[in-house]
Amino acid sequence: MRLSTLRRTLLLLVTIGWAICVPAQTPADLRLGDVLNGGDLFQLRDEYPHLKDSLSIGMLDLLARSQLGVGFNRPEEAAPALDSLLLLHQDALGAESTLSMAALRAMNLLNLELYAPAGAAGGDLVRALEGSLPFESCFGLVFIERVGKALSDVPAPRLERPDRTVTVPMRYDAVGRGHHYYIPVEVNGLERDFIFDTGCSFGCFVSERYAEEVGLTIVADSIPVSGMTVGFVKLAVADSLRVGEMVYHHPFFLVAPPDPEVDAEFAFDGVIGYDLLHAVGEVEVDNGAGVFRFPAQPSDGEPNMYLSGNIPRVRIEYGGEPFEMVFDTGNVKSNLDGAFALRFPDAVAGLERHATRHGGFGGIEEFEAVTLPEFRFLVAGCDVMLHDTEVVYDGADTATLLTVGSLGSDFVRSFRRLTISYRQMFIRGE
Asked: pLDDT tens-digit profile of 207-226?
């Protein structure tokens, strides 16, 4: 069983891949338009520097800058590009892409901790779309509006840490058909083990039982999030959160209500997610020593990871072709999806289908799957072999998708030591 607490908080936060139609004036315009429409952010990163000085269409330059800024964790660079797109180029973008850019801008403001402007931007979009889209299609904007408004009167989070590497113990325990990584977290004098989860996209995710136990302050309710379904959580704050010698001041928490179906199979206190990992910048998972390390000085590395909805995706190579996989350490075991099966039918041919249960926030669902005895691929210059990897038939109906699954805790465990850098946007294994 795959258990991942928060698959995706936001629905309308796109990366790239729209049908951009502009009257190209130069070969550079044509090429950049093709790259943007192709949806490959790594290709955009590689080609944009060589094309930007030859562009004649300003909108294309702004689109590239906004996508690179958001994807490679440079929200301060994305902000002016998104502002200019919406101010100057709505007609050329068209209604659908304008909406996507407006949603992306609102979330970028939230990531910049500009809570009041983010809440206002999200609210404007909610009111503009009211009655024209079902709630399931725009709940992400409601999330931005309600979170932004609730946090506008709360001090922005701030990390305090010593000027040296911080080391904390690691726990690696069996859960369902895989394992979770746990890290000790102290709130209000009470220490509990939180799941280490790169797939948690906003704030810490905690149970209602834990929130009551440590005395978190609830500042909003009816916050929509997406897991297995769209549901509602509360938003809470605390004075501080401690991980080893690091103190994260004014953290916020998404508080999940009890779910008898999920709780019967898996109960948790909390999940460390994007906000803290972004603040510390880099973490080293040392499986040999059984510790997490947070270096004071970030290391250098070539980007092989980007963010989509604040969740990392990494570039892998399988069968001589490049793909992307969600990097989700909260996933107890890596899995492939229907896009993989469509692209590589020979890899799954003859494998017996079986039922599998995948769950998280919102419940548990059953899917058909096959088990790939060996899944071997290249990532970050390393040859990785995973065993007994499920290929889940999740309804994917196209073989053109770039993303083919999720790398979970067994992937992290396959290295003696794995460095995850949000500052430089790379993973590096040894």
From this structure: 999 999 999 999 999 998 87
Residue with tokens 């503009």: 128
Single pTM value for the model:
0.90
**Amino acid symbol at 183:** I
Nearest partner of 180 among 289, 43, 331, 352, judged by Cα: 331
Longest dimension (CA), the chain: 62
Residue type, 344: F
Q: Residues 298, 375: contact at Cβ < 8 Å?
A: no
Q: Residues 6 or more apart from 385 whose CB is under 8 A from it?
A: 374, 375, 376, 414
Q: Are 155 and 239 in contact (CB under 8 A)?
A: no
184 DSSP β-pair partners = 193
What DSSP element (H or E) covers 387? strand 382-393
Strand partners, 325: 314
Report pLDDT digits (tens) over 225-255: 876 667 899 999 999 999 999 999 999 999 9
- Residue 318, by phi and psi: left (phi above 0), alpha (psi -120 to 50) or beta? beta
What are the structural domains, with CATH classification, of the chain? 2-151 (1.25.40), 158-294 (2.40.70.10), 305-429 (2.40.70.10)
Q: How far, in whole angstroms, is CA 75 from its chain's centroid? A: 15
Residues 6+ apart with CB under 8 A from 12: 99, 100, 103, 137, 138, 140, 141
Residue 358 and residue 367 in contact, taking contact as beta carbons nearer than 8 Å: yes
